[in-house]
Design goal:
Number of helices: 9
Structural class: alpha/beta
Strand content: 5-15%
Number of strands: 7
Shape: globular
Low-confidence stretches: 9-31
Strand order of the largest sheet: 3-2-4-1-5-6-7
Radius of gyration: 21 Å
Helix content: 40-55%
Largest sheet: 7 strands, parallel
Distance between the termini: 51 Å
């Protein structure tokens, strides 16, 4: 994964320093292919860093992800304890994540408690837009980091102090690489791709789409002005992730917004029903252990 190379997640910050200088044979494995392609995604690590073997890169990645996954599990438990349904939004810069969130918040503000965690490298511009729409927001600036991680999100959740039953939107840093590899404790993952980006995005950046529960094709109002094949994009998404739901929408003219809100509320309902079923099963077990008649 990218963060094994760049070290932005903290645990890998020493990558490229003087800690390891492996030069075994798998360092160069898979770099060159026929037809003029140099593929640095081959090998167990699916990445390349000068001076690090594939084996060492896999070890580093496992360490980074293991620590993150433990924090993500804690976030998930804390969200569940407060019946909070969290979604992680991924996209390229400019695909329309913040605009979609603002429009969504405006439609839901009188129906549910809402909160937003905004991830960017710098500025508080997006959080200010969310607050102007009437919802609480925490800005998380990652500096040189290219994604949010579970630790950042956990601290933001604590600062938000969101009420029970809230919808929590997590807007990740705008890129389709590193954010895809980090569980934040969310219940659902949503990937946005705009019609200005090209139909081959799912094939170029498969991890961002493979983990998505929903793919939103944004800026659909621009389709009459573009040479863009929505059917081809949908087919490419299905190649990477056949289970993902795909919806087309436009925040400018409202196309698809009702379908998006319906999907969101239905997913939250299933989430809450699952929590209720688990709570009821636990209560039944406790009654049985205590000898209390059902």
């Amino acid at each position: 994964m990218m963060c094994t190379v760049c070290g932005c997640s903290g645990a890998g910050a020493a990558i490229g320093g003087h800690h390891h200088h492996d030069h075994d044979h798998d360092l160069h494995h898979g770099h060159h292919h026929d037809h003029g392609t140099h593929d640095y995604g081959q090998g167990p690590a699916h990445a390349h860093a000068p001076g690090l073997s594939q084996t060492r890169m896999v070890e580093i990645e496992r360490g980074i992800l293991s620590a993150n996954d433990a924090l993500a599990a804690r976030n998930r438990d804390e969200l569940a304890a407060k019946w909070q349904f969290a979604l992680n939004f991924l996209s390229s810069p400019g695909a329309g994540k913040t605009t979609l969130l603002v429009e969504t918040l405006c439609r839901l503000h009188d129906r549910l408690p809402l909160a937003v965690i905004e991830g960017d490298q710098q500025t508080s511009n997006d959080a200010e837009r969310i607050r102007a729409a009437g919802s609480p927001a925490i800005q998380v600036n990652t500096g040189k980091g290219c994604h949010l991680d579970a630790g950042m999100v956990g601290r933001a959740l604590a600062a938000l102090d969101t009420p029970e039953g809230a919808l929590v939107f997590i807007e990740n840093v705008g890129n389709l690489v590193c954010p895809a590899g980090f569980d934040l404790g969310e219940a659902k993952r949503v990937t946005l791709v705009s019609v200005t980006e090209g139909e081959d995005k799912p094939l170029k950046y498969p991890d961002a789409f493979a983990g998505a529960d929903l793919v939103l094709v944004t800026k659909a109002d621009l389709l009459p002005h573009l040479d863009f094949d929505v059917a081809r994009l949908t087919a490419n998404i299905a190649r990477v992730n056949p289970r993902a739901t795909v919806l087309r929408l436009s925040t400018r003219d409202g196309e698809g917004m009702e379908a998006w809100i319906d999907w969101l509320l239905a997913a939250r309902k299933v989430f809450l029903e699952d929590l209720a079923a688990r709570a009821e099963a636990r209560a039944a077990g406790l009654r049985q252990a205590a000898g209390i008649p059902a």
